[in-house]
Amino acid sequence: MIEVQKIWGSNKVQKYMCYSGPSMYPTLKAGDLLYITPYDGGKTRKGDVIAFKPPNREICITHRVISVEPGAIRVRGDNNAYADPWALDPDYIIGKVTRARGKRGRRILGGTPGHVYALVIHSLNRGEGWVGVLFRPVYNWFAQKCVFRRWLPFHLKMRVITFSRRNGTEMQLFVGRYVIGRLQPGSDRWQILSPFRLIVDEASLPTL
Known about the structure:
The chain has 208 residues and is of the alpha+beta class. The chain has two helices and twelve strands; from the N terminus they run ββββββββααββββ. The chain has helices at residues 111-126, 129-145; strands spanning 2-6, 13-18, 33-37, 49-52, 61-69, 72-76, 93-101, 105-107, 158-165, 168-175, 178-183, 191-192. The strands form two sheets. Strands 1, 2, 3, 4, 5, 6, 7 and 8 form an eight-stranded antiparallel beta sheet that branches. Residues 4-10 have low confidence and may be disordered.
């Protein structure tokens, strides 16, 4: 749902949307209130986080721009392995996400800084690049042995919380107040953020 508010003393319009889903994690989290500024003829840049309505669909999606060509803007969620199938026309775009407010308000990077940030997040989540190639065997060994789990402070012990979604039940794995893993509806495999696989025994986690 999008709420619209006219900014006093100007012609600008500020839009708001409540975010849900895991596709932009950790940049955005379910329940975040997004501040959306329409482009109003301005240039959409690679690295911007945008809210848009895909062709022939009524839902609103928030993903990051990964390429800009005349009449064809490509997007991908920061937590997704692949780009979305749509080649967006600018008319489909509602605006650019500039801030998000959950427990604390924060700025959402766009343009070149946003593009670099997304590359780092994507590389960490997927174990890509030369760092992943060199250290993946060692990392996987430590992850399988869970040798670091015993050093986790008591107040940061892991817990699983179950949520009801429109398309089924989702489980989220927390360390302290941070979400480090998700089991999405219809899936039998947990998605654990790469660094935390060192302390998570995936075989002991519940399944749906």
